[in-house]
Specification:
Shape: globular
Largest sheet: 5 strands, antiparallel
Strand content: over 45%
Oligomer: single chain
């Protein structure tokens, strides 16, 4: 069942609830925004909480957007000498990673796009801070952890932004030939070379639950196939699968599943229409077929019952579908024509509901999928 919520200039409007008929949709469209705000705002706001942290590099702050009320919930402020690395919502609030250098240091990127290192011309610059800060939902800082205590000690050459578990107890990075992770609860760190031992070169990683890291990349010298799976941090075992003649584009995970979306061919503007799904509990891998470019953005729900897929139909039009994972029948679909998105689509879990978030310059959409 799909609820479509439209936010216009701070107004939340429920346009349809469940699989509404065409007549119901027409009636909803005739209702004024102010009337619907008065009638539905309280019920909508109490149905779930949904936040979107956004790094504002100009003001060097993290803005926490309340997507239900379409208001700014608050701001996390950083010093001007600090550089924000990442900000995301976790189970008990928000996690922010930031870094800073001494006065002699200047930022420099590795040529391969790895972690920013600080150095001046003679290489004497150094990091003075690389920290993880945890905040509750009221934006009170709960804990600040120096990641340099682990990285310097282990001489870790980490690449890219870190990934963080939902319980905020683990943080991980890619390295040249392994995964480096820190268990903050146990106060220990570790290089895991299980992937390199299987001749797997990982391109992208993300936590799938709190003790597993999903990945995709390649295995061996084959360039046309995709190797994907998960690393179990408890015993450092690897579950790997091969998708033949498949070019992965995006890794999307939840507490149980790894979902590999493919990439749109820049020459043909088409995709394979295939999605790779791995159940991290049963280790069962499955390939499903969807409608064309839906394979570039689809996520399976944690209960394994539904696939939520998004497809651009034309320049300013996109479609959202719900598929039954047992039969792959379409449970519901809706098409929307609005401004071009200024940020990518996101599929989030809000309480017991799944929501598809689409943000543009003037419009905000939240599609809540009851399953």
């Amino acid at each position: 069942m799909l609820k479509k919520i439209l936010a216009i200039g701070g107004i939340i409007c429920i346009l349809c609830s469940g699989c509404a008929s065409n007549a119901e949709k027409e009636n909803a469209s005739e209702t004024s925004a102010e009337d619907q705000k008065e009638e539905n705002h309280d019920a909508t706001a109490s149905s779930f909480q949904l936040y979107e942290p956004e790094i504002d590099y100009e003001s060097n702050t993290v803005k926490i957007h309340d997507l239900v009320s379409n208001d700014l919930a608050g701001t996390i402020t950083c010093r001007q000498d600090e550089q924000l690395v990442t900000a995301l919502e976790v189970d008990d609030g928000f996690a922010v990673v930031k870094k800073s250098t001494d006065e002699s240091g200047t930022a420099k990127e590795y040529e391969n796009g790895g972690l920013v290192v600080t150095t001046d011309e003679d290489g004497s610059g150094s990091w003075t801070e690389y920290a993880l800060e945890l905040y509750d939902f009221d934006l009170n800082m709960v804990k600040s952890i120096s990641l340099l205590d682990y990285i310097d000690q282990d001489k870790a050459e980490i690449h890219g932004d870190p990934v963080i578990s939902r319980n905020a107890e683990k943080i991980a990075w890619l390295t040249d030939d392994s995964i480096y992770y820190v268990d903050l609860a146990a106060e220990k760190s570790c290089f895991v070379d299980a992937l390199s031992q299987e001749n797997i070169v990982s391109v992208q990683i993300a936590f799938a639950g709190n003790d597993k890291i999903g990945f995709y990349g390649s295995q061996g010298i084959t360039e046309t196939d995709t190797c994907y799976g998960f690393l179990n941090l408890e015993d450092q075992s690897v579950s790997a699968h091969i998708a033949k003649d498949y070019q992965a584009g995006t890794l999307l995970t939840n507490d149980r599943y790894v979902c590999i979306n493919d990439a749109q061919d820049p020459y043909t503007n088409k995709s394979s229409g295939k999605i790779q799904i791995l159940d991290c509990k049963t280790n069962e891998a499955r390939e499903v077929q969807v409608d064309g470019l839906e394979s570039t953005f689809s996520v399976i729900t944690e209960d394994g019952k539904m696939l939520i897929s998004i497809k651009w139909d034309e320049e300013n039009s996109f479609r959202i579908r719900n598929y039954d994972m047992d039969t792959m029948d379409v449970l519901y679909e809706t098409t929307c024509k609005k401004d071009e998105a200024v940020r990518p689509f996101e599929i989030k879990k809000a309480g017991d509901e799944y929501v598809v978030v689409y943000l543009s310059s003037e419009w905000g959409y939240v599609y809540a999928a009851d399953h």
